[in-house]
From TrEMBL:
GO terms for molecular function: 3'-5' DNA helicase activity; 5'-3' DNA helicase activity; ATP binding; ATP hydrolysis activity. Keywords: Activator, ATP-binding, Chromatin regulator, DNA damage, DNA repair, Helicase, Hydrolase, Nucleotide-binding, Nucleus, Transcription, Transcription regulation. GO terms for cellular component: Ino80 complex; R2TP complex; Swr1 complex. Pfam families: TIP49 (PF06068), TIP49_C (PF17856). GO terms for biological process: box C/D snoRNP assembly; chromatin remodeling; DNA repair; regulation of transcription by RNA polymerase II; rRNA processing. Belongs to the RuvB family. This is RuvB-like helicase. It is an enzyme of class 3 (hydrolase). Its EC number is 3.6.4.12. It comes from Neolecta irregularis (strain DAH-3). Gene3D superfamilies: 1.10.8.60, P-loop containing nucleotide triphosphate hydrolases, RuvB-like helicase, domain II.
Length: 429
């Protein structure tokens, strides 16, 4: 994976690069990857970095992102929410053959009836090899008028829908200055037959097909996102149908990418759902991220690495991110300040790097923004050391916050006020 403003973390980025490659060759459907590492080491950044690669492929590989905690707030069961995310991440490329008529307009002749209400007409259209006369009905005449088609235009007519598109003007008419606007495009008069077959492809996700076919929801739910639960019968019918289309060569399945951030927030039911789904026939590539060490699996009393059950871990390829060296932190802070249009003195950069090492990269990044606001307040375009110092005292980092709490613990409500041995019972006056 190339840099994209990312610094260091070479190992992890190389691994991500391999994954992009595998996605391109659609080799790892049904695989799952875990990006594991301490907080703010760029896990989310690396996973999101895959997206532009998919886009530059010009491809239609779907990419879905889900923050694990989202599934608890939706108005559907956890597993349904996961299922929908899975199916959003699987694309179906549908091939369609359409018949078109493509050629240069020789003449359009429109006859109005005496009352002017009904129209009839004739269209002469040619290629370099042939010329044909078509009768025009009201609808086609309107369509031609709408597209402002005149003799000398190269047009294409979709036979099924009657849709007309103007491809440009014929080279032969290049000297017809009247009929031209500044952006006129010239094209060659087509060769061969007037009628042609053309293959078109559309890609939709399985989820979109589900919603459109689920009678209770209707396709408008796609826009509101209010899809509710979709019956499993609907899904299995769709899977069968798509299986048939695949056999007949009418459709291709494109496994996409599902990114589940903060995956330790899922619980044991979700994990077993994922386990099973990974083994299914239609599965996307799942990328998860977690910053947990050995911790309890949600919904159980067991502890496990990254908060994931061992049987799921066993199916995962694990990429790990590590903490940054001072040089890398400096580099990241420099890039960050450039992005935010903040000018830092070199002294400030050093201090921020130090803060980044001792507290966290995130905190140092936050300080850039705050220090900049403080500098702007005293009408300075450059952020100096005193601005950072001020920001550092105004906003404390996590470690200082913990220390502060330990020092003044008895002033806070802890919920233990009524316990017998509580050091200082709550005073009721
Ligand atoms: N290698 C890097 N190069 C440039 N910027 C980085 C790099 N790593 C992290 N950052 C920046 O640091 C911040 C934190 O990174 P990110 O959100 O990806 O961390 P994370 O590993 O997902 O952390 P968490 O576990 O807390 O979710 C982001 O603003 C990101 O842009
Ligand atoms: Mg993250």
């Amino acid at each position: 994976m190339s840099s994209q403003g990312m610094v260091g973390q070479l190992q992890a980025r190389r691994a991500a690069g391999v994954i992009v490659q595998m996605i391109k060759e659609s080799k790892i459907a049904g695989r799952a990857i875990l990006i594991a590492g301490p907080p703010s080491t760029g896990k989310t950044a690396i996973a999101m970095g895959i997206l532009p690669f998919l886009l530059t492929l010009g491809s239609d590989v779907p990419f879905t992102m889900l923050a694990a905690s989202e599934i608890y707030s939706l108005e559907m069961s956890k597993t349904e929410a996961l299922m929908q995310s899975f199916r959003k991440s699987i694309g179906v490329r549908i091939k369609e053959e359409t018949e078109i008529i493509e050629g240069e307009v020789v003449e359009i002749q429109i006859d109005k009836s005496l009352t002017g209400t009904t129209k009839q007409g004739k269209l002469t259209i040619k290629t370099t090899d042939m010329e044909t006369l078509y009768d025009l009905g009201q609808k086609m005449i309107d369509a031609l008028n709408r597209e402002k088609v005149v003799a000398g235009d190269i047009i294409s007519i979709d036979k099924a829908s009657g849709k007309i598109s103007k491809l440009g003007r014929s080279f032969a008419r290049a000297r017809d200055y009247d009929a031209m606007s500044a952006d006129t495009k010239f094209v060659q008069c087509p060769e061969g037959e007037l009628q042609k077959r053309r293959e078109q492809t559309h890609t939709v996700s399985l989820h979109e097909i589900d919603v459109i076919n689920s009678r209770t929801q209707g396709f408008l739910a796609l826009f509101s996102g209010d899809t509710g639960e979709i019956k499993s019968e609907v899904r299995s019918q769709i899977d069968t149908k798509i299986g048939e289309w695949k056999e007949e060569g009418k459709a291709d399945i494109i496994p996409g990418v599902l990114f589940i951030d903060e995956v330790h927030m899922l619980d044991i039911e979700c994990f077993s759902f994922i386990n099973r789904a990974l083994e299914g026939e239609l599965a996307p590539i799942i990328i998860m991220a977690s910053n947990r060490g050995i911790t309890k699996i949600r919904g159980t009393h067991y502890k496990s690495p990254h908060g994931l059950p061992i049987d799921l871990l066993d199916r995962l390829l694990i990429i790990s991110t590590s903490t940054y060296s001072p040089d890398e932190i400096r580099e990241i802070l420099k890039i960050r300040s450039q992005e935010e249009d903040v000018t830092l003195t070199s002294e400030t950069v050093e201090t921020l790097t130090k803060i980044g090492q001792e507290t966290s990269l995130r905190y140092a990044i936050h300080l850039i923004t705050i220090a900049n606001l403080i500098a702007l307040k005293r009408s300075s375009q450059t952020v100096e050391l005193r601005d950072v110092n001020r920001a550092y005292t105004l906003f404390i980092d996590q470690r200082r916050s913990v220390k502060y709490l330990q020092d003044v613990a008895e002033n806070y409500i802890t919920g233990k006020e009524w316990e017998e041995n509580s050091t200082r019972p709550m005073q009721v006056s």
